[in-house]
Amino acid sequence: MKQYRYKIVVFTLLCVSLGLSSCEEWLDVRPKSEIKSENLFESERGYRQALFGIYTGMSSSTIYGGNLTMSFLDVLAQNYVIETDSEPFYYDKIYEYDHIGVERTINSIWGKMYSQIVNCNNLLENLEGQEDLFADDNYNIFLAETKALRAFLHFDLLRMFGPSLASGGGSTLAIPFVDKVQITPFQQLTVTKMLEKIVQELTQAKELIREIDPIRPNNVGYVDSEYMSVNENIYIDDDGFLLYRKSRMNYYAITGILARVYLYQNDKAKALEAAKEVLESGRFKWIDVYSKIIGNESPDIIFYDEIIFNLFNDKLDTKSDNYFKRDAYNKLYISDARKAIYFPFKLGEGGDSDYRYRYQFEKKGGPQEFVNKYDFRGEGTKYIPMLRLSEMAYIAAECEPNQVKALGYLNTVRKNRGYAEDNFISIDADFEKEIYNEYRREFIAEGQLFYYMKRKNIIDIDYSDIDGSEAVYVLPLPDSEIDFGNIK
């Protein structure tokens, strides 16, 4: 949406030139803010408002609070049962990207993602030369988080709107890397060049935060707690700015995202190194169902302990109800038969004991199975998972050259999903298919399966009569970008 983005950039420049006199809505600042927008960048507190506004914007239904997790991307991955053209997501399911409703969704994703990137750029430009406004090491915390967010957003845009390396698309022009506030349209970069820029940005962010993030190597004094009053240490000071690091771009989140990007580049050695750094950090625990789910009035059905990075949204249960209720207009569900395929063990042989099978679906009064990860009863239902410990295990398994060790990573996940050892993956199993199936079980309503299918250039798409191809895996750029921007 070049016209839309052009207006955003012009408005940004006007805001800067006028001292941010009318940018509060554009910056997506929380409504409870007491800081006037004209004073936003005159204190560290104002910079916090701007940074938190980016996280809040990312949790909107247009992107990670809906389309890129629960609905659109998972519809493309064929995770739900959609059978007739009277159902709202039917044309999404059959990849009719030129259908008016689907096109509207795609255009809104593009516009919202780039508007958050522009917010990152505006914050970074206003950080320049302002070190004296910040306490302790907070200046570099801001720099690192904002750079990492900008890279994260660009990477997901690339995974949607650019071809994959597996399809031979490395030299193909993809999307712009927007790293400045300017009116002149940005040129498209090739997929390979975009990945290089993203890695560079994430690497810079990781080095900036390596020695100062409370969640960092060798810092045993920090305990990530959901409740500030429980965490009686120095990080309570300064309004708790350094608490809740899992809801921010922390050191291990950046490292894990680097593992994702390296794997997308097919640099398996670096992907394995990054994934192992997270896995071996000891910062993230596998779910203990006996203390966190069974008999718990507030069950952790989203497996919060395993989340490395999440977005917070206190209306998430309402967003979830838009899809995962019997009377929802945008109803999304799986059938009993489909669930049995996802978890293909006979009763008593492992599938029915899988924690995901047992706790992350609910019939809600009928035969249809609804995802209940974001159900209001759960402890973690205000959190949208962006990166999980299990994904690090899957990346390590895919990249580990030693087959026995690779199996060990996959079976570690199985062990921590309730499987007995005799239901572990064996040495003679179809390894690629096992990883594919694990992505479907683990990341339903989280959006990651479509990216996996695209990265592997999967032709035979389960539950679809349409073969995987560039027409399926590359979302079309908005027409207005082509008409008015520097887009080919």
The main sheet orders its strands as 1-2
**CATH T-level fold name of the domain at 1-220:** Serine Threonine Protein Phosphatase 5, Tetratricopeptide repeat
Q: Summarize the amount of helix as a percent range.
A: 40-55%
Distance between the termini: 14 Å
Q: Count the helices. How many? A: 19
**Rounded to an integer, what's the Rg over CA atoms?**
22 Å
Number of strands: 6
**N-to-C SSE string, H for helix and E for strand:** HHHHHHEEHHHHEHHHEEEHHHHHH
Fold and architecture overview:
- The protein has 19 helices and six strands.
- The protein is mainly α and 488 residues long.
- It has a domain at 1-220: Serine Threonine Protein Phosphatase 5, Tetratricopeptide repeat (Alpha Horseshoe).
- The strands form three sheets. A two-stranded antiparallel sheet has the order 1-2.
- Helix 14 packs antiparallel against helix 16.
- The protein starts with a helix and ends with a helix.
- The model is unreliable at 1-35 and 226-237 (pLDDT under 50).
